[in-house]
Write a structure and sequence with these properties.
mainly beta; Immunoglobulin-like; four-stranded antiparallel β-sheet; elongated
Length: 130
């Protein structure tokens, strides 16, 4: 599991390679990732936007941004956690994802919460130790 704290918000990510949905012969490698956003602050926060940068080992980059997460704009009371699972396709057997969430406080302040960079490694990637 990957974890990153920004201010009083902790983001945890757990990636999983989906072999049954992947097809190495067709250069299609699919991952699911589960995200947990925990509000450790003393005020209610809202996840108003997301930004993802997805890069494969061959240098192909995808950027994804938009309102909220998985069609929701969740509110997190102090101590609450919001979790969801989504997916990412790559045309190479490995890559990396990173990004941030736009948060909004009760007072209307907005700030970015970093998503930890995490690796997407399939069993089809050859690893070389130097």
């Amino acid at each position: 599991m990957y974890e990153r704290r920004t201010r009083d918000v902790v983001v945890r990510v757990e990636p999983e390679f989906l072999a049954e949905q992947s097809s190495p012969a067709d250069d299609r490698y699919i991952w699911a990732y589960t995200v947990e956003i925990e509000n450790q602050s003393s005020e209610e926060l809202q996840v108003v936007k997301r930004y993802w940068k997805i890069a494969d080992r061959d240098g192909q980059v995808q950027e994804v941004s938009g309102e909220g997460v998985v069609g929701e704009i969740p509110m997190l009371k102090p101590g609450e956690t919001f979790s969801y699972t989504s997916g990412a396709p790559l045309s190479a057997p490995s890559g990396v994802m990173l990004g941030h969430y736009g948060m909004k406080t009760e007072a209307g302040e907005t700030y970015d919460v970093e998503i930890p960079a995490f690796s997407l490694d399939s069993p089809f990637e050859q690893r070389v130790i130097h």
